């Protein structure tokens, strides 16, 4: 297998690392209109990837191969890496506080990859992210549903009290219920699974040219602040004879967006899910979005957009293919 480690790769905004991790670059349009993208150093890469780019080696290849069969890489799946100055700087604003102890992986998530589905995304029961609450939510009886709603309403009422409001004033009377319903809608992706959405819409067409759906509107919720982020996602793939119904791509994006997310993981999950259900030659996903947690609070930078990408298969291996995708979606032109 040929390892592509050309220097030009580092100029690509979408140069995902060798493990398929999406890489985040921030673009600020406020300064001089130019859109220079910072090239993150090797230190910026998450977790265990510490080798500088360009060390093409069998070892790297081996790592890549094995990462495909492992559960999705995820902040919660790994011990927190030692804090690095660089990383803080690049990822600071909208990014994660370090993982809380409470979100530490459960024993079954943590160690024994062998007990998990080989798929990083689609669990044995068809739900896309293994989690206790997801199954409960899907299987609940009407009584349990009512109970859940009461619990949520109580929580929202508490919030209203804590911010200094009067939950009993007229305008707020129905707010706890409205908010609870809205929250369940924002997170409805927990109840869906990829296989239901694809629902057999995979067709053997013998088509092997690039397919792109661009400007898919995506609304998601930042898991760190529970406020929305939204933007556009661009999905491309090169079939291996089989194509997927074109409307399924936005629906897969929607499924993963309607959960608590971080943009990096959302990008990666969409790419891996398509890779998995369709088995194409490669998949590329680029997402650009604006995070309310960054715009309305924190650094209050209203013009920043955050771009993440995940390239798999031939998009990862072939720079030409990747560049074709990027120029077709218009990322290279700006
Ligand atoms: Zn946030």
TrEMBL record:
Keywords: Allosteric enzyme, Folate biosynthesis, GTP-binding, Hydrolase, Nucleotide-binding. Gene3D superfamilies: 1.10.286.10, 3.30.1130.10. One of its GO terms (molecular function) is GTP binding. It comes from the Eukaryota. Pathway: Cofactor biosynthesis; 7,8-dihydroneopterin triphosphate biosynthesis; 7,8-dihydroneopterin triphosphate from GTP: step 1/1. Residues 61-83, 133-149 have a biased composition (Basic and acidic residues). Transmembrane segments: none annotated. Its EC number is 3.5.4.16. One of its GO terms (cellular component) is cytoplasm. GO terms for biological process: folic acid biosynthetic process; tetrahydrobiopterin biosynthetic process; tetrahydrofolate biosynthetic process. Residues 153-329 form the GTP cyclohydrolase I domain. It holds the Pfam family GTP_cyclohydroI. GTP cyclohydrolase 1 is the first enzyme in the biosynthetic pathway leading to folic acid. HAMAP family: FolE. This is GTP cyclohydrolase 1. It comes from Cercophora samala.
């Amino acid at each position: 297998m040929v390892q592509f480690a050309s220097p030009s790769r580092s100029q690509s905004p979408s140069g995902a690392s060798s493990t398929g991790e999406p890489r985040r670059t921030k673009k600020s349009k406020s300064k001089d209109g130019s859109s220079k993208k910072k090239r993150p150093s090797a230190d910026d890469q998450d977790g265990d990837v510490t080798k500088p780019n360009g060390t093409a080696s069998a070892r790297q290849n081996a790592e890549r191969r094995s990462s495909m069969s492992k559960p999705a890489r995820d902040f919660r799946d790994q011990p927190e890496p030692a804090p690095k100055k660089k990383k803080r700087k690049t990822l600071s604003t909208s990014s994660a506080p370090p993982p809380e102890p409470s979100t530490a992986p459960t024993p079954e998530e943590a160690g024994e990859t062998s007990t998990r589905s080989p798929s990083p995304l689609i669990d044995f029961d068809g739900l896309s992210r293994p989690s206790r609450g997801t199954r409960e939510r899907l299987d609940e009886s009407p009584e349990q549903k009512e109970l859940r709603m009461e619990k949520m309403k109580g929580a929202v009422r508490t919030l209203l009290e804590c911010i200094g409001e009067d939950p009993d004033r007229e305008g707020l009377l129905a707010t706890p219920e409205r908010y609870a319903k809205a929250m369940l809608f924002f997170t409805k992706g927990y109840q869906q699974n990829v296989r239901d959405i694809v629902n057999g819409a995979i067709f053997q067409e013998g088509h092997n040219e690039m397919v792109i759906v661009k400007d898919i509107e995506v609304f998601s919720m930042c898991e760190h602040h529970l406020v929305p982020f939204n933007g556009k996602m661009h999905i491309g793939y090169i079939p291996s004879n089989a194509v997927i119904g074109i409307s399924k791509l936005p629906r897969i994006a929607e499924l993963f967006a309607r959960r608590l997310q971080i943009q990096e993981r959302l990008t990666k999950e969409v790419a891996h899910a398509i890779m998995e259900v369709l088995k194409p030659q490669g998949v590329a996903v680029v997402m650009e979005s604006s995070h309310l947690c960054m715009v309305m609070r924190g650094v209050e930078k209203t013009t920043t957009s955050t771009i993440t990408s995940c390239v798999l298969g031939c998009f990862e291996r072939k720079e030409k293919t990747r560049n074709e995708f990027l120029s077709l979606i218009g990322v290279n032109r700006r």
